[in-house]
UniProtKB/TrEMBL annotation:
Membrane recorded as keyword: no
UniProt protein name: Coenzyme PQQ synthesis protein B
NCBIfam families named among the record's database cross-references: PQQ_syn_pqqB
Coiled-coil intervals, chain numbering: none
Function, in words: May be involved in the transport of PQQ or its precursor to the periplasm.
Sorted UniProt keywords: PQQ biosynthesis, Transport
Length: 310
């Protein structure tokens, strides 16, 4: 199984177009230790020829230029794509907007929760993905889903499970109370496995809390890609960027007693990689004490183009 990080940053990317925080300013100035990043997506393939996108980033076009393995093949037909399926973990803009890049009459399948499929169906913009070519398949929670797209069996199985999180920002219902109308299953984690080899990994780009159930699920895993949005809850407020905490945005922090570094410490996960890293996060500075602390705790800071195989 081949895995490639197409985009390692959170919504907005790094540097973010309108952001002049210390990280974004340093990245824009080309300072050493600050590597630019595109928005949240992974590619996975069993055979290296046919690929599944895990979330479709607004930066997908640029990501395909950077990752020719996923772009149209020179030896292929006049229109062709190695991308046979897209699996969505939620309805956030940074995870669905890239679907619009996949227009132009190409067959593939979209796998998502019923609620996210309804959001796509309710927005006429996504009708550019013609129903006769682009299949919409429900990703059932806590059941294995064999991924098939454009008539190709991708040879991989996805098991989606609900994690703590929040409904997409643009769907928030202020009148619905403190959870803004969030339902169980609005934020999914994925376990992607290859039945032929038994190898598996987890992909969890958004998660508000590492509860006992999630901890038990991840214990002993070989590889986990995990939500690295913020270092600490108030960092966007402190830097004058946005008046919201990580908790309000539906993301657990890296630091602190309930943060991901502490929560993963006893789980015996072999390889832990942060993805969906927000531009405000000090770990994006390769020379920062926070970066050193995360690495000392056994975490890798995912980057665009990072390749792994299982
Ligand atoms: C998030 O991960 O919290 C969202 O992508 C935020 C957003 O929609 O900008
Ligand atoms: Mn996001
Ligand atoms: Zn910034």
């Amino acid at each position: 199984m081949f895995i490639r990080i197409l985009g390692s940053s959170a919504g907005g990317g790094f540097p973010q177009w309108n952001c002049n925080c210390r990280n974004c300013a340093a990245a824009r100035a080309g300072k050493p230790g600050f590597r630019a990043r595109t928005q949240s997506s992974l590619g996975v393939s069993r055979d290296g020829a046919n690929w599944i996108l895990l979330n479709a980033s607004p930066d997908l076009g640029a990501q395909l230029v950077q990752n020719p393995a996923l772009a149209a093949r020179i030896e292929g037909a006049s229109r062709n794509s190695p991308i046979k399926a897209v699996v969505l973990t939620n309805g956030d803009v940074d995870h669905v907007a890239g679907l619009l890049t996949l227009r132009e009459a190409q067959a593939f399948s979209i796998y998502a929760s019923r609620r996210v499929l309804d959001v796509l169906a309710g927005n006429a913009l996504f009708d550019v993905l013609a129903a006769n070519l682009v299949g919409r398949e429900i990703l059932t929670i806590d059941a294995p889903t064999k991924i098939i797209g454009a008539g190709v069996d991708l040879g991989l199985v996805v098991e989606a499970f609900a994690v703590e999180g929040k409904i997409a920002l643009y769907l928030e219902d202020a009148a619905a109370g403190p959870n803004f109308g969030t339902q169980i299953g609005d934020t999914l984690g994925l376990r992607i496995s290859d039945p032929a080899t038994g190898e598996a990994f987890f992909y969890i780009p958004g998660c508000a809390k590492i509860d006992e159930k999630l901890a038990a699920r991840l214990a002993g895993a070989k590889l986990v890609f995990f939500d690295g949005t913020l270092w600490h809850d108030d960092e966007m407020i402190e830097q004058g960027l946005l008046g919201k905490t990580g908790a309000r945005m539906g993301h657990v922090n890296m630091s602190g007693p309930e943060g991901s570094i502490a929560s993963f410490a006893p789980l015996g996960v072999e390889r832990k990689v942060y993805i969906h890293i927000n531009n405000s996060n000090p770990v994006l500075n390769e020379f920062s004490p926070e970066r050193k602390a995360a690495e000392a705790a056994g975490w890798e800071i995912g980057y665009d183009g990072m390749e792994l195989s299982l």
